[in-house]
Amino acid sequence: MSSAAPRPAEQDHLWSVDEHLEDILATVRPLEPIELHLLDAQGCVLVEDVTVPVSLPPFDNSSMDGYAVRVTDVAGASEEFPAVLDVVGDVAAGQAELLHVGPGQAARIMTGAPLPPGAETVVPVEWTDGGLGEGPVTGMQARALAPEGAEGHVHVYRSARARAHVRAKGSDVRAGDRALEAGTVLGPPQIALLAAIGRGTVRVRPRPRVVVMSTGSELVQPDESLGTGQIYDSNSFALTAAARDAGAIAYRVGAVADDAETLRSTIEDQLVRADLMVTTGGVSVGAYDVVKEALSSVGDEDEPGAGVDFRKLAMQPGKPQGFGSIGPDHTPLLALPGNPVSSYVSFELFVRPAIRTLMGLDDVHRPRTRATLTADKALTSPKGRRQFLRGTYADGSVSPVGGAGSHLVAALAQADALIVVPEDVESVEPGTEVEVVLLG
Question: Cβ distance 243 to 235 under 8 Å?
Answer without folding.
Answer: no
